[in-house]
Write a structure and sequence with these properties.
The protein is built from nine helices and 14 strands. The chain is α/β, with parallel strands linked by helices. The radius of gyration is 17 Å and the shape is globular. The chain has an eight-stranded parallel beta barrel with strand order 2-3-4-5-8-9-10-11, surrounded by seven helices.
Length: 271
């Protein structure tokens, strides 16, 4: 079995004040992604920042970052349409017009820490339909059990192509707690033939990534999910986190998917 390793180098929340190794500018992100690719990552999950490190849906910044990555390596690009809590949904959804191979689709509005993550139903359906028109594969990010039900409704309406690709997000305040029981419950409820990965935030990242791999899922690693390599030790960039995820998979006798293999596993449309 081949496992897809995704690197999430930046995210929407942390800053270089939290971890000086966090890449925020296009060239920094591209170099971090390239290093992760060399370690075994086949997918790059991208958030973008402006010159002040604020989350942005700027098409110019996104395009520049994507171009810099594509100049360096053949990793598959997945753009986050989540962007950041301060960015309007109508601006976030325009990122799919750049036609990345994949993009996130967040099915529900929710409390997110001290803020609100706004994903209105009519907008989600509009975005899902547009992604299907552009052949951009949705990565369905579910933070709670009801989010999974919302995704299944989109699938039943013909807005999502199989195989469905899920990220099970645990540990965000406002969503599922990061516990093995919650992860197992969600895995049991996934549709047949679904492809999935664990996104565990903070201190539970390592434990739940290992459990997810043992249950047949893929893995994500990077500074978006945890700023620490271990308790009290800041990660010196994304590379150590990706290296650890790759080693976890290999310790379970799993092979690491190349970008070409990941493309086949995910049944990505050809652009």
């Amino acid at each position: 079995m081949s496992v897809i390793i995704t690197v999430a180098p930046t995210g929407p929340i942390a800053s270089t004040a939290d971890n000086p190794s966090l890449p925020t500018q296009p060239l920094e992100i591209a170099e971090a992604v390239h290093a992760a690719y060399l370690e075994g990552a086949s997918v790059a999950h991208l958030h973008f920042r402006d010159e002040n490190e604020k989350p942005t849906a700027s098409l110019d910044i996104a395009k520049r970052t994507m171009d810099l990555i594509e100049e360096r390596c053949p990793i598959l690009i997945q753009v986050s349409t989540g962007v950041g809590l301060s960015v309007e949904f109508e601006d976030r959804e325009k990122l799919v017009e750049l036609r990345p191979r994949m993009a996130t689709l967040n099915p529900c509005t929710m409390s997110f820490g001290e803020g609100e993550f706004r994903n209105p139903p009519i907008g989600v359906r509009r975005l899902a339909a547009r992604m299907r028109e552009l052949d951009v594969k949705p990565e369905l990010e579910v933070y709670d059990t009801g989010h999974l039900d919302a995704c299944i409704r989109l699938w039943e309406e013909g807005l999502l192509a199989e195989p469905l690709q899920f990220s099970l997000v645990l540990g965000v305040r406002g969503g599922m707690a990061a516990t093995p029981d919650n992860l197992i419950t969600m895995v049991k409820r996934l549709p047949p033939e679904a492809i999935w990965q664990v996104i565990a935030i903070g201190r539970s990242s390592l434990e739940l990534t290992a459990i997810g791999l043992a249950l047949g899922g893929n893995a994500r690693a990077g500074l978006e999910d945890t700023l620490y390599l271990r308790k009290g030790e800041l990660a010196q960039g994304n590379t150590p986190l990706v290296t650890r995820a790759v080693q976890l998979a290999r310790d379970l006798d799993l092979s690491i998917a190349s970008p070409e293999q990941a493309e086949q596993i995910l049944a990505l449309p050809q652009h």
